[in-house]
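<amino_acid_chain>
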Amino acid sequence: MKVPKPSKVLVIGSAEGRVIEALEYIADLHKTHNFKFVICLGNLFTRKTPTAVVSKLKNEKFLVPLPVYFGVGSAGMPEAVTSHMAMYGPEICPNLFCMGICGFMKTYSRFTIAQLGGTYDEVKFNEPMNKREKSLTERSFHLTDVQTLSKRCDILFSNSWPENVQNKSSLPRRNLPSGNAPVAALAANCMPQYFFVPSPVYYEREPYRNSAVNVPSGTVSRFFGIAPFKNPTGEKFAYAFTLNPLTGEYVGDVPPNCTDSPFVLRPIPLKRASSEQVIPPPDSPISTESGFTRFKKSKVGPDACFFCLSNPSISLHLIVAIGNEAYMALPKGPLTTKDTNAPELPFPAHVLIIPIAHASALSLLSDSSYKSTVDELHRFREAVTQMYNAHNSDAIVYEISRANGVHVHWQVIPIPKALSPTALEYFTNQAKESGFAFEERDIRSHELNYFRVFLPTGEILVHTLSLRERFDLQFGRRATAKIIGIEDRVDWRHCSQTEEAEKKDVEDFKSYFKPYDFT
């Protein structure tokens, strides 16, 4: 395991929505100090941050020169930011990352950061999870957020103060925020080297010892309250330091002014961070060089992916055409059969269009292959549609795109032409039953999390998937089955065939598709 090297870090106080001014300040300091990363406390953004400011960042009219991390403060987030995150993930623009209400990450320089955003509301904190709606607009943290973050880290920063932070300190008592018990418990569990909170004034406590099993000798924590960015009273609003790894080479003697920990109770049970909330380390297949994942990619690699041609276990006998950027294969357990299709199409004809590159979403493809892959997917779709049309049938084509999916693909299913006018109504009603409504539009360039369906009557319906939405992966198949009247075939496992039958379907498909095959 690689050991992190000492890194220069900058922490600044709450900018109260003065985003560009704060980032300009950071950029200027970085020119002379060469920081590894920066943490912005409190309200870097607020609900009132102008959309024009967010657009300036997203359009890269202002460039952030190094990784900058921030969380949700007490003033909320502008809709332009939350909608961007719902669609594209936590990177607002290159090098600017929102860690939300609860975030745990490992930076590119291999240090760990835990962040607890929002405010403390005792009622919401203890609210049962089945009554709590998780969303990007949430402004208070929950018990499970504290549990998730309760693991060792190098830096902890929170929007709320811990209670009793002045206990066991020999410094003069000051009028500081009273704090709360959950954040104090989090500090006890995390045992960070550095703990930062936004503060009305600058406050630096003496270092304190962490008393827990298996904590390296000499390990101490340092707590800082950082005053608001460029405050009118001249309080210190920035703190720069060198972060050292917790290895024998760098762990020195306990400072002479070190105290016992003010956080003596640890009432929050330890819990492993969930895969939905932890930001993966840079050696993980789902991270980027910045240390913070832009999109949560699949943990399944090409060698284990059943849609990747490099997988030695792939069912090669199901492949019907291979292009430059995509290929087509028949599915295991097709929805349709020769008996459910129009008489002119006497075989299942259900087919998958699959990008050759391993990606959970089209928007995760490299810039060099994105356009050519999308173009070829559409070319296959149009070719199959022409084949269907020539045999009294139309195409339903749908796609589920999720950052945490495995391998994106398009399902293409034939329906008799006589049923095509009913498709819109069936998909709309199925959405209503599932608790959402479609937008009639195509996806935006590089849109990430969505369900999309191309209907035979020309409509394109899109449903944007929220980060934690439990979307029915069989939604498209279920709605199409209702159109055809074969709801007993929704579960593909009940529609499996022998390999001999599959091979016959492949030969039939190739024969009918031959006049339209461009590969």
Remarks:
- Residues 367-389 form the longest helix (23 residues).
- The two ends are 46 Å apart (CA to CA).
- DSSP finds ten helices and 21 strands in the chain.
